[in-house]
Amino acid sequence: MSEERVDDATRAKQADLDRDAAISDLSQSILEHREQEAARERAEEAAKQREEPTKPPADGVS
Amino acid sequence: MPTRIVLLDEGGRIVEGNASWRRLTSEHGCEGGYVGWSYLDAWELTTDASQVEVAAGLRQVRAGELEVFEFTYPSQTPEGCLWYLLRAVPYIGGQDGWIVVTHQDVTEVHRHREHIRHHEAILDQLDAAVYTTDLHRTVQSWNAGAERLFGWTAEEAIGRSTYDMMLGRLERPAPSVHTAVEQGRWAGELELSRKDGSTFPAYVRTSNSPGLVDESVLIAYVVLDISERVQSQRELTATRDRLRAVADSIGEGMFTLDLEGRLTYMNPAAEQALGLALEDVRDTVAQDLLQSRHLNESAKSAQAKHASGAGHGDNVVRVRDDTFLRGDGVERSVAYTASPYATEDGVEGIVVVFRDITERKAETRRLTQEVEKARWVKRIKRALADDQFVLFAQPIVALDSNEVVQRELLIRLRDPKAHDKVIAPGEFLPVAEEYGLIGDIDRWVIDQSTRLAASGLAVELNVSAASIGDRRLIPFIKSAIGRNSADPALLVFEITETSLLGNEQDGQRFVDQMRQLGCRVALDDFGTGYGGFTYLKQLPVDYLKIDIEFVRDLATNEASRNVVEAIVTLASRFGLKTIAEGVESSESLLLLRDLSVDYAQGYYIGRPAPLEA
Question: Could you give the count of Cα atoms lying within 13 Å of B604 in the half-sphere of its Cβ?
Fold first, then answer.
């Protein structure tokens, strides 16, 4: 195998590793984003539960 | 008053009188005691009574026909009316035909007897048996009410034992008379028998009373026939039992509340439907258990109608849609009526009859959705046939030059019946996908897009997951490009990340063939799917479209910024361009530029709008 071809293979391998690292970083970032969103939703739900439930209008009553 | 005594001869003439007699005659003006007078003439002066009966009596005594003749008569005196007992007996040891007549003042006895007679007359008028017995249960007195009630006449009853007449015939023994005597007073209900053997329920009250004549104790009885009351009670109990049986057997759940909203009754259907046992929740406020939206106000409304005098049927409150919380915490949809009730003994409350409509409501909702979908299917087909779809375009700018480089085409539906009102795709695309119409819509969009590309406009168009798997689509695109003489380089096909799930081979084939045609492909909604992104190694797309979820709050959310940054890095590693969606502020736009995003679109840059002709 020539030196040039070895360099190409090394670069390709490096590029592949870089891609895997980028995929991993993105997956981790999205995971953190989702966890943050879930925590925010839970906090909103808890705040809603603490509030006195407002009675809806007396629809359906005759 | 001393007894007056007079001796008469065989002719009825007065032979002699005692001092008391003489005192009487002197008050009438005769000092000699009427000696030698006809007794009847003298006696007539002292009384208003008739001589006839007395004359007959004296004659009978004189003739030996009567041993004793007695006659009670009144006599007017300065002290008032006095009563005397005239008593005539033969004069033993005297001459034949002589008799002794005594006059005894019996006014007190007479009044006493009158008093007793008066009370007996009153007792006889009572609709109650009143009688007395001695301690051996021997009847001493027996009023007319007792005659009517027991069928025994006073003549038959007096001197007989009540045990023989009414108690000994019963299967259930009555309380001992002696117990009654010991207690001095007793009252209760007994089963008693009549002379004819029939029995009846009776209310009996006894009390001890002293005898009139001596110191012996009498027991006085008052007996009332309570047959009608007992019968009414039985009928009432039977009616209540019937009502309870009806309430327990009806399929609807039923419960009653008192005026404070506390549970007083639940039928078995209600217990089952609500997952509650009456014995556990009786007297609990129903609202605390059921967490209903309308129960309290309905009960109050029904009660108010009742209080205002609304008639039966007008005071019923109907609730068509509410929820009750079951004992196990599950919420059920219910419909019910709340009606006021009031018993004759003053108990008031509300009766609630309900049905669980959870399944019916879900079925109705499902049917309504089906009908609505069917309406949309018809509408979409008509829109395809009558060319009622339109394409709006939203500009996409290059962040390094701020120039519009292409436009995303977004489908809308015009409503010709509402002045061409524009209907958003969220209304009809889900139905089109579910009912297999999305392919027709995709083809309409592709045809329109190639026409626009033919006019020199660079456009992005969305292709559904269903069309990506459709082998006929690629030939159609080729045909449309050829038919409309479009430059394929001006066409960017958007496919979503989620459309590739389980569809990777079709997705890869589609992307490959589009690129072979000279078109480009964008991966839409990037970052929202659940893939691990390694598929990008086999999927040679040109653009990653960063979802609005990460762009909208870019200025305030570090996690969003991290995601965008990671996508940009990823895109550079794969040699792809990035397009940010949902840019709604200048801050976001500046940040995207700082993060080296290539392109952007959003309301801040330009809203989707109809293309100018």
Answer: 17
Question: Could you tell me which residues are beta bridge partners of residue B139?
Answer: B133
User: What is the pTM for the complete model shown?
Assistant: 0.58
- The reply to whether domains B4-105 and B119-225 share a CATH topology is yes
Chain A within 8 Å of B562 (Cβ-Cβ)? yes
The CATH architecture that domain B119-225 belongs to is 2-Layer Sandwich (3.30)
B537 to A62: CB separation less than 8 angstroms, yes or no: no
Q: Does B527 touch chain A (CB under 8 A)?
A: yes
Rounded to an integer, what distance in angstroms lies between the CA atom of residue B303 and that of residue B297?
10
User: Does CATH number 1.20.140.10 belong to domain B4-105?
Assistant: no
Chain A contact set for B298 (CB, 8 A): 61
Can you give B61-88 as a three-state secondary structure string?
HHCCCCCCEEEEEEEEECCEEEEEEEEE
Choose the weakest-confidence range: B17-26, B202-211, B569-578: B202-211
A contacts of B294 (beta carbons < 8 Å) = 58, 60-61
Find out whether B488 and B402 touch, Cβ atoms under 8 Å.
no
What integer is the mean pLDDT of B376-380? 95
Range B251-356: architecture per CATH: 2-Layer Sandwich (3.30)
Opening angle at CA B540, ends B537 and B546, nearest 5: 90
B285-299 residue pLDDT tens:
999 999 999 999 988
Q: What is the CATH number of domain B368-610?
A: 3.20.20.450
Question: Which pLDDT tens digit goes with each residue over B37-51?
Answer: 888 887 776 666 667
- From CA B478, how far away is CA B486, in angstroms rounded? 10
Q: For chain B, give every domain's residue range.
A: 4-105, 119-225, 251-356, 368-610
- Dump pLDDT digits (tens) for B55-94: 889 899 988 898 999 988 887 777 788 888 989 999 887 7
Tell me the ipTM for this assembly.
0.80
Which residue ranges make up each domain of chain A? 1-45
**CB-based contact B298:A40 (threshold 8 Å):** no
Q: Which residues of B touch A62 (CB under 8 A)?
A: 317-320
